[in-house]
Amino acid sequence: MSATSSAPQHFLADDDLTSAQQREVLELAAALKADPFSATPLAGPQAVAIIFDKPTLRTQASFTAGVAHLGGYPMLVDGTLAQIGVRESVPDTARVLGRMTSAIVWRTYAQSALTEMATHAGVPVVNALTDDYHPCQILADLLTIAEHTGGLAASGPALTGRRFAYVGDGANNMAHSYLLGGALAGMDVRIGAPEGYHPDPEVLARAAAIATSTGAQVSVHTDPASAVDGVEVLATDTWVSMGQEGQKEERERPFRPYQLNDALLSHASPSAIVLHCLPAYRGKEITDAVIEGPASRVWDEAENRLHVQKAILAYLLGHR
Ligand code: NVA
């Protein structure tokens, strides 16, 4: 174990890591996957608060197991009981939890609340999904892409030149994190989304700026076939993110042409792999045939949440 001064304090969005740091985290994740109990930066056991204001399965399971693997105690805080920002302000919550834990993992709605938590906690804060970003998921996806398309680059951006397309809601947390995380990794990142559901221009501009330094490319397409043309990796996500349940019906029609099905997959590279962060709505954003088919790597992707989240926690805590 060695301390590093270059790790960021928090992981609130994908671009809190530099391209080089992202590669280091992915290398650490691969090492922890190969030897799961080799690092105990949370020995004590030190507590990590894990808070959910939205539903969860993989994120709770992977952070709970991951903190235990690292020698720590996963302190699950029920967001519906804590009512952060309602019963108690975010800064007050941050200062209390920061006195009792070594890190805080939070799934919530507003990115600004997460930033406020980080400002006041005094310990590392990790984004376990907000309305804007899902950076832990993107690390898991990048590790999965590396495993199935030739490994991590030894130096430089982690996945230089890999061709990647995401189809579906281009304005959601996954699309934004793919843009930023994929640009840091040096990939050709294409977002295929209907008009009205394109990425936030501010996020797209940030990704484009990162791309100029990493050699990545970022683009937005309204034609789904052109988005996925020749890609090595295809991904999608629900058309109705958590918090958008009231828009379920209006979102059905515009997204239908972006369904990840065999016809769309036929435009990708013949050896293309398919990712989905889950939960999947079969028959909506992805067909049963594709998610259960030979291109699907979604179960490896889900497992990789565990390994990358251990790595990001260890990295923020100064372990390499
Ligand atoms: N965009 C989805 C991701 C779920 C992991 C949501 O926010 O609900």
Which ligands occur here? norvaline
* Strand numbers in spatial order across the main sheet: 7-6-5-8-9
The structure class reads alpha/beta
Spans where pLDDT lies below 50 across 5 or more residues: 1-5
Number of helices: 13
Could you tell me the strand content as a percent range? Answer: 5-15%
Mean pLDDT level: 96
Principal-axis shape equals globular
- How far is it from the N-terminal to the C-terminal residue, by CA? 6 Å
Query: What is the radius of gyration?
Result: 19 Å
Largest sheet: 5 strands, parallel
Helical residue percent band: 40-55%
Order of helices and strands: HEHEHHEHEHEHEHEHEHHEHH
- Number of strand segments: 9
What does this structure look like?
With 320 residues, the protein is of the alpha/beta class. The protein has helices spanning 19-34, 58-69, 79-82, 90-100, 111-121, 135-148, 173-184, 201-214, 224-228, 248-255, 262-265, 288-291, 298-316, and strands at 47-52, 73-78, 103-107, 125-127, 163-167, 188-192, 217-221, 233-236, 273-276. It has 13 helices and nine strands. The longest helix is centred in the C-terminal third of the chain and has 19 residues, at 298-316. The radius of gyration is 19 Å and the shape is globular. It binds norvaline. Residues 129, 134, 172-174, 237-238, 241-242, 277 line the site of norvaline.
